[in-house]
Amino acid sequence: MSEQNEIIADYLAGVLSPERRRQFEQSLENNRELQAQVAAMQTLIGQMKAAPQEQMPRDLTADVMEKIRRENVVPFPLRIRMVLKHFPAAAAAALVLWLTLFSTSPINEKNGNNGSNGQQKKATHVASATENHQQMALQWLAAKQQSDGSWDVAAYGGQQIHTVGISSLALMALLEKGAEYRENVAKSVQFVRDNQSPDGRFGPACSTSMYNHGIATVALLKAYKDNGNNDLRYSLACALSYIIRAQAKSGGWGYLGRSDEMPNTAVTAWQIHALSLATAMGWDEARVALDRGSRYVASFVDAAGKVGYGNASPSAPVTSALTAMGAYALLTAETETSRTQGRQILAAVAEQVSQRKNASCDPYFAYFFVQAARAAGGDEYAQNLRRDRDLLGQTQAAIGAEAGSFPVSITPHAQAGGQIYATAIAALTL
Prior knowledge:
CATH architecture of the largest domain: Alpha/alpha barrel
Oligomer: single chain
Distance between the termini: 36 Å
Helix content: 55-70%
Order of helices and strands: HHHHHHHHHHHHHHHHHH
Largest sheet: none
Number of strands: 0
Shape: globular
Number of helices: 18
Number of domains: 2
């Protein structure tokens, strides 16, 4: 038995004493080889956890357990523990392949199928590396949630005024696997509702009110779509009314939530995101505002098909994230002309992504790129982001107390939201 493998297994299982854990993490700091072994074994654990555990028929349980007792067969969960302590980390990839091929029920060799009816059993899904990265991120977010349903944004490098918006982004991430995080989702939904003012605004009146409000509205709409809780309808109706009232004459939205302020395409995209979801769910009163918002964005598309920030700051650099946001906004428009323009922008961005030599792991861009692809009815566009997702996964913390989280360096937009924002937007992208 390798003593080092045993220590790694105990470390990842959380059974080392506090002193041994501290010593081990000190050893990790400057030992790249050890870091690689820990990361490989952590990936292995994720694969083993993802391997499906098929339920045996009730009437066979007693017979199988008697066979295990009589023949001293080691059950599968215990075999996993043994493998972690005995299997070299360098051979992790081979064991992952073994799990992929042999974690399902054995094939009936006589009949060449899996059942007495002679029907071919459906292929069992095995989680990809990307899905494992996402699951780790969601586990980290769930562990960091506070008792009131929020996330302490300031404690993880963000600005306190963004707490409602960033907590809503974390809620959106957990909704990706809502059934697994039902309690976390319920607490988060309640926190967002508790932070709605009488005029319908989510979050405090501050310099970025409409970011908080737009993201929170999107999150609650997604929660409502998932659980059909009619208690959310009144909160959502008030929130949508606030968005409509805050729309500028030009059709866009600014930071403060006032109709007389200078709008921009970045804030506008989140309001369009909310209005688009709402109209799809039957809030017809949101259609006019949605169409006006899409027309506003269309007015800032340049000859190259890139989307600018807007007249609030004409000299602001055109970014891929803004262009992806613009494509999504246009694809939600009422007019076919705008939707066609949105499809053209999306196709151009997809082509650029597929041809660039180096991957980019900006999840803010990737999130809106995927939303645009879905609005266009072409999820195949999202396949262009495979390299980006692989690169993003490499930035995820694999060891220690922050395992599963993402650093703020993954996107320039994370500076205001901190580690909670970075991890939430990454989880939504993976």
